[in-house]
Amino acid sequence: MTSFTGLDLHKRSVTATTLDAEGVVVATAKMPCRPDALRAYFAQQPGHHAATVECTTGWYWVRDALADRADGGPEVDLTLAHAKGVKAIAAAKVKTDAADARTLAHLLRTDLLPEAHMISDEMRPLRDVLRTRLRLVERRVAAQNSVARLLEKHNVRDVADLDAFGRLQAETHIEQAELLHQQIKRLEKHLRIHLVPDADVQRLFRIPGIGQAVAFSIRLEVDDVSRFETDRQFFSYCRLVPGADNSGDRVRHKRSRDGNRYLKLAFSHAAVRAIQYYPEVRDWYKTKRRRKPEAVARALVAKEIARVVYHVLRKQEDFNGRFKGRPLSRLKKEQWPLLASPAGITGDGEPQARPPSAGMGSE
């Protein structure tokens, strides 16, 4: 018989409430955030366990603790609950840790739990490294902007033209930017080792506007494209469609914050590059630009690139070289990071020389 457990997770403690198949509370406990304590709670109860926890920052250790059965502990099937979805369904007047845990268990038992995607174990650390890289890029840009604002403040064009105190500030920002650049390259080197040989990444490389960083972001943030039944669901998850705020006869669109912000950023960047380098994409963008604001026209290009990505990953087919039915006049060159085979990567993450006869092939 299966029991259903809701886990209300906090920084220092986790509250567990377990229901049986009839919805009766059979156990509840508050314990410290320790893997051994969590496994001991489930070990006290016989039978098969289904558990859920909201997708907050701490779910990693919960997943690892319940997946670790080295000590012969019970098997627990963990489901991630979508925090915003749970709040919309089960808002309550009385809110305590025990009540929240029981609500999660009840939603899981009745198959009403709004689920969040749990990234695969092998891709999870790579995704975290990639997100760390993005944060470092943002800090490097901030340091570079600080130097630019300092020059603007004193109306000079070069750091050497600043006074002693101004140079001290500027040099500090420059040193920080250089250090961040080295750290970014270090992370990218490790990502290349694992991701460049990936067949899906190789397919993404061939799509207009998608380079290494964007391809890595799409591969890791999407993880498994089969979880999206239609391309419209994929667009929504990528934040490429506006939200709605309609009431009566009033129809309003609004910017949605639901979905994955990293994919929104990746496809927006791909759209800019595709417009810049591909005449057919630029022509289609210009037709939209005549009737719509610039940001909206760019968003439409990003959406079309996302459509290509969805079908390439879903069908496991190579990009056909067409955009909106038009063949592209230029394609990606057969050079790094496009590989003839995964053997094109050396142990240190750098490309090997490709034999002269090697073609692009298909992964």
From TrEMBL:
UniProt region (Disordered), positions on chain: 340-363
Transposase IS110-like N-terminal domain: from which residue to which, for each copy?
Answer: 6-153
Q: Tell me the GO molecular function terms.
A: DNA binding; transposase activity
* Pfam families to which the protein is assigned, alphabetical: DEDD_Tnp_IS110, Transposase_20
Q: Which GO terms describe its biological process?
A: DNA transposition
For the Transposase IS116/IS110/IS902 C-terminal domain, which residue ranges apply?
Answer: 202-285
Matching entries from InterPro entries are given as: Transp_IS110-like_N (IPR002525), Transpos_IS110 (IPR047650), Transposase_20 (IPR003346)
Q: Classify the source by domain of life.
A: Bacteria
**NCBIfam families found in the cross-reference section:** transpos_IS110 (NF033542)
PANTHER family on file: TRANSPOSASE FOR INSERTION SEQUENCE ELEMENT IS1111A, TRANSPOSASE-RELATED
Q: What is this protein called?
A: Uncharacterized protein
The opening ranks of the lineage are:
Bacteria, Pseudomonadati, Rhodothermota, Rhodothermia, Rhodothermales
